[in-house]
């Protein structure tokens, strides 16, 4: 088999695995989706968060920013990693004490308002889109280079993958 | 959870904000200060061939971040225990 064939095989297998897991482990409640019903020990949970950080957005987009902008690009590292401190100090403990998993849930309950909740959802999507774009761009350049997909197709396949997360959450 | 009178709650929150303020000042100095504002000044110092400002942006501040989170968890767990609002260990 050629290198190209092996690449397709491995990527296909990991796709199948991911989609399989998404179908097999559909969460039945939000508690199950966000914290796996609370059955995951803190260390493993931390490892999962770390693995989430080590995404295409970090490895390709961040590295690309720094290589193109030189040292000025490294200020993005501050936001990228320093944000975790803000998250851990200002947001996570209070959500946890409140017994919710997401900011929109908290806002909706705290202010007894569906409108406030929707606004919070829009804000969350807006602030989450840079990293999602970074990830999709990372996958796009990967699929362009290694799978010889056209750019747009690579981009679309990234969204197909994303939609399976949504499926397993539903 | 044990019933708390208002004074103790205020005390707890005040302490909470104190910890937050202290840790965030360190966070600001390490990330914005050392890595961006004073980077040129720190770059004059070289440790084993590496410029200190550069080291802070690429590595040093991350060490500080991780340490801050650990310290915060430690402090808050102690505070929670003192005010009896900690999460009881469930087997």
Task: Describe the protein's architecture and organization.
The complex is a heterodimer of chains A (170) and B (91). The relative contact order of chain A is 0.11. Chain A has helices spanning 3-24, 30-35, 42-53, 56-69, 75-98, 103-110, 114-146, 151-169. Helices cover 81% and strands 0% of the residues of chain A. Chain A has one domain (3-169). Chain A is an all-alpha fold. Chain A has 8 helices and no strands. In chain A, α7 (114-146) packs across α8. Chain B has 91 residues and is mainly α. Chain B has one domain. Chain B has helices spanning 6-37, 39-43, 52-82, and strands at 46-47, 50-51. Chain B has a two-stranded antiparallel ribbon. In chain B, β1 (46-47) and β2 (50-51) form a beta hairpin. The longest helix of chain B is centred in the N-terminal third of the chain and has 32 residues, at 6-37. The mean pLDDT of chain B is 83. Classes of the chains: A mainly alpha (170), B mainly alpha (91). Chains A and B meet through α5 of A and α1 and α3 of B.
Question: What is the secondary structure topology, with strand pairs?
Answer:
The complex is a heterodimer of chains A (170) and B (91).
Chain A: H1 3-24, H2 30-35, H3 42-53, H4 56-69, H5 75-98, H6 103-110, H7 114-146, H8 151-169
Chain B: H1 6-37, H2 39-43, E1 46-47, E2 50-51, H3 52-82
Antiparallel strand pairs in B: 1-2
